[in-house]
Design goal:
12 strands; about 15% strand; Rossmann fold; 8 helices; four-stranded parallel β-sheet
C-alpha cells in the first residue's frame, strides 16, 4: 500500500500514480495498491479495504514521502493504526519514509545535470551556485535533511557555492533565499526543488526564480526538474518494502521533536499521535492553470504537495504544511511553529 499525501492539483496526483505504477512494476510478486491521505481520491482507507477484500492477510504501508515529519510520524500512523484496530485479522506493517538515501542523491544529481546540459557549458560548476529547495516543516529534523542533501550535491558536483531554501513554514523562504544567493557573486544559479511531485509549491518555487531573475539580469538562473519518477526513486521505494519484509524497518527517531528535546521545540515532546486530515479526505482535485495560480497565496504546505485554503489563522503543520482553515471546520489544533514571525519565514510572503 503506497500512501500518498494527495493534492488538489491533478498533475501531482497523476505523477504520484505514475510512481505507484513504477513500484508495482518493480514488485510484480505483490498485490500493490495506492491511496491518499487528503484531497485526492481514492483515500487510503478505501484502498486498504480493496486489498483486504482481495484476500490479502498482510499489508505493508509505505509512505510516499521524502522525509519523516508530521505526516509520516503522526497522520499516516493514525490512519493505519485505526484501520488495523478495526481489522485485527490483518497484519499491517508501517514502512519508513524514503529518508536520506544515496539512490535519491544520485537521482537528484541526474536532474541537476539535466538542467546544466540544457543551459549549456558557458559557465563552469565553480562559477555556479546551487540552491536546493525543500518543502519546509515545523520539524527541524526534517528541515535539517535538506541541508545534508544540499551538501552532498554541492560537494559531489563541485559547485562554487550552495544554499538551502524552503517553500514554506520555516525559513528562509524561496524569494529571500534566492535574493541572498544573488548577492554572492556567482554567474549562474541553479534552483533544484527537492520534491517528488509537481503542485502549487513547485510552481511557486519556479515563479520566485523568475521574480529574482528579473531583478538580477546579470545572473543566469536555471530551473532544475524535481525528482518525479526517476528510476532510482522507484528503486528506493522498492527497498523500503523489502526493509519492512525483512524487519530492518528502522526510522531515525534520534532527533524527533516528539521524542527528544530538540532545541526550541521542547514543549512538543510527547504530543499525541493523531491525524489532522479527516476534514479533507477525498475532497477532490482539479487542473491548476497559470491563471489560477497565485504565488503569494497562503497555502497548506508539503509534501511533495500543496493545497490552498481559505484562512483565518496561521500555524505550521509538523511536516511542512501550513494549514489555513477555520477553527469551526474541525476540532483539532496544531502546535504553533515557534518561528512563524521570522523575517525570512512563513508569514513574510503574505505581505505582498
Amino acid at each position: 500500500m503506497v500512501c500518498g499525501h494527495g493534492s488538489r492539483d491533478v498533475d501531482a496526483v497523476t505523477e504520484f500514480q505514475s510512481v505507484a505504477n513504477g513500484i508495482r512494476d518493480r514488485l510484480p510478486q505483490y498485490d500493490v495498491d495506492s491511496g491518499f491521505l487528503e484531497f485526492a481520491t481514492p483515500i487510503i482507507r478505501e484502498r486498504l479495504d480493496a486489498l483486504r477484500e482481495r484476500g490479502n492477510k498482510r499489508i505493508i504501508a509505505i509512505p510516499g514521502m521524502l522525509f519523516a515529519a508530521g505526516h509520516v510520524k503522526n497522520d499516516l500512523p493514525s490512519v493505519i493504526n485505526t484501520y488495523g484496530a478495526q481489522h485485527p485479522e490483518l497484519e499491517i506493517t508501517y514502512g519508513r519514509d524514503l529518508g536520506m538515501d544515496m539512490k535519491l542523491i544520485r537521482a537528484a544529481g541526474d536532474r541537476i545535470r539535466e538542467a546544466m546540459a540544457s543551459a549549456g557549458d558557458h559557465f563552469s560548476p565553480a562559477e555556479t551556485l546551487l540552491v536546493v529547495v525543500g518543502r519546509g516543516a515545523s520539524d527541524p529534523d526534517a528541515n535539517s535533511n535538506i541541508s545534508k542533501v544540499c551538501r552532498l550535491l554541492w560537494e559531489g558536483l563541485g559547485f562554487g557555492w550552495a544554499e538551502v531554501a524552503y517553500s514554506g513554514v520555516t525559513f528562509p523562504l524561496v524569494e529571500p533565499g534566492l535574493q541572498h544567493a544573488a548577492r554572492l557573486g556567482y554567474k549562474r544559479i541553479i534552483v533544484f526543488p527537492y520534491f517528488l511531485f509537481t503542485g502549487i509549491l513547485v510552481r511557486r518555487i519556479y515563479h520566485y526564480v523568475d521574480v529574482v531573475a528579473a531583478e538580477n539580469p546579470d545572473i543566469e538562473f536555471v530551473k532544475a526538474p524535481y525528482l518525479n519518477d526517476h528510476p532510482l526513486v522507484l528503486d528506493a521505494f522498492a527497498d523500503r518494502v523489502q526493509e519492512a519484509l525483512e524487519g530492518a524497518n528502522n526510522m531515525n527517531c534520534l532527533m524527533c521533536k516528539y521524542r527528544e528535546q530538540v532545541l526550541g521545540f521542547e514543549v512538543e515532546v510527547g504530543l499525541p499521535q493523531e491525524s489532522h486530515h479527516h476534514h479533507v479526505e477525498g475532497i477532490g482535485t482539479g487542473k491548476i492553470s497559470d491563471e489560477d495560480f497565485d504565488p503569494t497565496a497562503h497555502v497548506h504546505l508539503d509534501g511533495d504537495h500543496s493545497q490552498e485554503h481559505s484562512h483565518d489563522h496561521g500555524h505550521g503543520h509538523s511536516d511542512g504544511h501550513e494549514h489555513a482553515h477555520s477553527h469551526d471546520d474541525h476540532d483539532h489544533e496544531h502546535h504553533p511553529y515557534p518561528h512563524a514571525d521570522h523575517p525570512l519565514g512563513p508569514r513574510s510572503m503574505l505581505k505582498k
